[in-house]
Amino acid sequence: MSPQDFEYISTLIKSRSGLVLTPDKAYLLESRLMPIARKQGLKGLDELIASMRARRDETLTVEVTEAMTTNESFFFRDIKPFDLLRDEVLPPILEKRAQQKRLRIWCAAASSGQEPYSIAILLKELGAKISGWKIDIVGTDISHDILKKASTGQYSQFEVQRGMPIQLLLKYFDKTDESWTIKADIRKMVQYKYLNLLENLNGLGNFDIVFCRNVLIYFDAETKGTVLKRIAKLMPEDGMLFLGGAETVLGVSDSFKPVPGKRGVYTLA
Ligand SMILES: C[S@@+](CC[C@H](N)C(=O)[O-])C[C@H]1O[C@@H](n2cnc3c(N)ncnc32)[C@H](O)[C@@H]1O
User: Fold this and answer.
1) Count of other CB atoms within 10 angstroms of residue 24
2) Rounded distance, CA 123 to CA 86, Å?
3) Most buried pick, 111, 194, 195, 231, via CB within 10 A?
4) Which ligand 1 atom minimizes the distance to the CA of 196?
5) Residues forming beta bridges with residue 30, ordered by sequence position
């Protein structure tokens, strides 16, 4: 690929999704975009990029952008944040909202649904403590395809083995042939929506708890700061933000500050 083509495609992907594609990650273009080139009847990436430049086809641009996203996820990822959510973050929030019995949680990069469903199961396991509560769990993502998969709640044996404890698997999933489908009562607790974190977040409403995990790592510092500032606007004073293990607000945003003793958890600054 010529340096001009690399510049064209990486600029386009960054402006559409925030993903920074450095030259050492150029190999990702080959593996992720070749299937699209083939589908278009084109011989390779050079022809695909030439076609994109010439046609400026919005559908193709969206397809290319989505193909470049990394959708890696698993149930109860890193486990500690979920323990913190259950044992330390939720109890004071539930206590403060005991009158309204209203709680809103947002998974801002929900991918194939493992994160929002892990939260839904965790809440369901609280039993009587949340009985009578109106709880919204909203999962958003930039990839239409991955949201479709998330909505089905259907996972392979390999996917459920990654993080889902056996007793919760047997309790909350039905086995169908080779796959496992999350039970309807858990699936219904999560609402999925398309949302690009680079765009306007108006209309989503406010959230007591936000999981924005393992997506900011793909953005540059300026984009991280802008996204965090927008997220902060949707949260009440006592709202809690969860970031991924390799992410932090330090040095990129003054909207949030770390919660001492709770790694990966942040509160409004
Ligand atoms: C690595 S997955 C993280 C999934 C989950 N949060 C976890 O930690 O397991 C990153 C997700 O971010 C989504 N994503 C990337 N850029 C985005 C953007 N600009 N707006 C919304 N979602 C985005 C990708 O489609 C992908 O599903």
Assistant:
1) 7
2) 8
3) 111
4) 20
5) none
Rounded Cα distance, 247 and 24, in Å: 21
Sign of the C-alpha dihedral computed for residues 15, 218, 233 and 229 taken in this order: negative
CA-closest candidate to residue 164, choices 213, 121, 215 = 121
55 membership: H or E segment, kind and range = helix 45-55
Ligand 1 atom 3, closest CA: 214
Residues 79, 116 contacting (CB under 8 angstroms) = no
Hey, what are 260's tokens? 């001492």
Asked whether residue 245 carries a pLDDT value surpassing 90, the answer given is yes
Q: What is the distance in A from the centroid of ligand 1 to the CA of 110?
A: 6
pLDDT score of 6 more than 90: yes
42: burial class by Cβ within 10 Å (0-12, 13-18, 19+)?
Answer: middle
**Which backbone phi and psi does 59 adopt, to 5 degrees?**
-60, -40
- Is residue 198 within 8 A of residue 108, CB to CB? The reply is no
> From CA 191, how far away is CA 119, in angstroms rounded?
13
